[in-house]
Amino acid sequence: MTYRAYSSLDDLIQLRLHSKELSLFRPRIAKSALSGQYRSSRKGRGIEFAEVRVYQPGDDVRTIDWRVTARSQEPHTKVFQEERERPVFILVDQSQSLFFGSQGDFKSVIAAEAGSALAWAALANSDRVGGIVFSEKNHQEIKPRRQKKIVLQLLHNIHAYNHALSMTTQPTPPSTTYFADVLGHACRLIKPGSTVAIFSDFLRFSERARQYLSRLASHNDVLMFHIQDPLESQLPPPGYYTFTDGQRRCSINTQQRQLRQRFAEQAQQHQQTLISFCRRYRMAFHPLTTQQPAIDQLKQVFHSPWSKRVV
Questions:
Q1: What is the pTM for the complete model shown?
Q2: DSSP letters spanning 163-212
Q3: Which residues does the UniProt record annotate as the domain DUF58 (predicted)?
Q4: Better-predicted residue by pLDDT, 116 or 21
């Protein structure tokens, strides 16, 4: 298997072939005219215009189409059905901390491909798709549309941000603000009732970021995909190693048992904090590793009973 530091635009586009295998939402027939996430076979006065038909006793007189009635000399009424599709909004983190991988693809590649695959799956389900691709420096947003060109635009943004990452990038001081800033912008941009998928390592999980996430979760279905490399949860066997997170370099001696134990405990605590936060605000939490292709992991996620129940 070839491990990659960068994604390929062709690969991001080819992920469309797997879109039908990712059952983000399963089509269902609504039991009432106002339930479920999809168009119901029942019709009534709702949001979306369906048709004009001959007026029947019991129809709401407020829905009479007077133009058609005048033209046909027979009462006709407008029939509506509830709009059941929901926008899917995808946030893809391409900050410098994701430009790392020890035993597989870089975290930035996993984020890029997982976000792209989910965008194709949403479009295949006739949902509107939008998103934000971001780094420490800036972000690009796309408002949700039910169009292939919108997904392609999102993929181009993901690809551009992914290839802007570099080990020679001028180091910048660690910051907790950019992630929170993007989430704050998402709160203003995303309409209630959306599905929001976030692909990140969540290393900038500040209090302000948590406030925005809880706000998003109060009106939307939020899915947090935590991308992690095995080396971030457990140090390698005893020895001398040089590490970099894309911003800083350091050499450490892993022969110290206490160091290895403390490192593992901190990593476990970080993930447990994320899990507890998701449970508190009823968000779905899914870990993704750099050791497996992103699409294979997503197939496992969206075929599990947990994801069906949460999403």
A1: 0.78
A2: HH--TTSPP----SHHHHHHHHHHHHHSPTT-EEEEEE--TT--HHHHHH
A3: 51-272
A4: 116
